[in-house]
Design a protein that fits this description.
The chain has a single domain, classed as 4-Layer Sandwich (Purple Acid Phosphatase, chain A, domain 2), CATH 3.60.21.10. About 30% of the residues lie in helices and about 20% in strands. It has nine helices and ten strands.
Amino acid sequence: MKIAIISDIHGNLEALKAVLNDISSRGINKIYCLGDLIAKGSHSLECIKLIRDNCDVVIRGNCDEYFTSVIDTNNKSIEEVNRINWNKNKLDKESLDYLRNLPFSYEFYMSGRLVRLVHAHPERIDKFAGNIDRINNIYELTLPSNNTISDLKADVLIYGHIHTPYVQKMYNRYIINTGSVGNAIDVFRNPQKDGNVKNTTVANYLVLTGTLDSKNFDEVFSFELVSVPYNIEKEISTNEDNIELDSYSEELRNGKYRDMKKIFDSFESRNINIEDI
């Protein structure tokens, strides 16, 4: 059994279509989605429809939750209010209801491993755990919470949210990030150290292979991180109405997050040394 796990589409229709085509070409049996279908790109409705038509499991992302909730805008900047209104206006009632009713997490057994899917963290839908982080912050991803289906520790924890694919192995457990389909980034950038940016500006997803619903550990289990090129310029050209077109285009073309200060503040608040970047 092969399962494709995708995440963080963010309204990028060209990237999503490229990934779905690649998944189809590999004869993959099922597709699971870790959320953030919307926000940033202009094609929220089209992406929601493709996800609903193609995915066997979909869980809720922080953007799906945020832009379908009642938001107090009294203390928001004009830019943020405009962003909220633009993203909300991209959705119809059916899509709003669909996103609001998505589950927080999902879990299953594959070749003996308890595999848990969350968007960002078992505790909170928007909690940040980076690919380079303190050991305990990453380990906490494997723990259950009041939001998870079971109270067991995960053998394999799979999440999205940070838009950067990676695999971590610790304490006989795996932590895997799928990366982002529609908004791939690498926050660690340095002109003297950077490789080819095309190694980042692709659509990313994960493939799991094993025996679904089996609790027998003595079976083959494997995973593969897949990067799929797509037509970035075509995607940008179809975003004429995007109120954040400049920052969206910059992220797609250069794989660099629009608010690096937010990332560095997060690291500093947890005493993570970033001086070597």
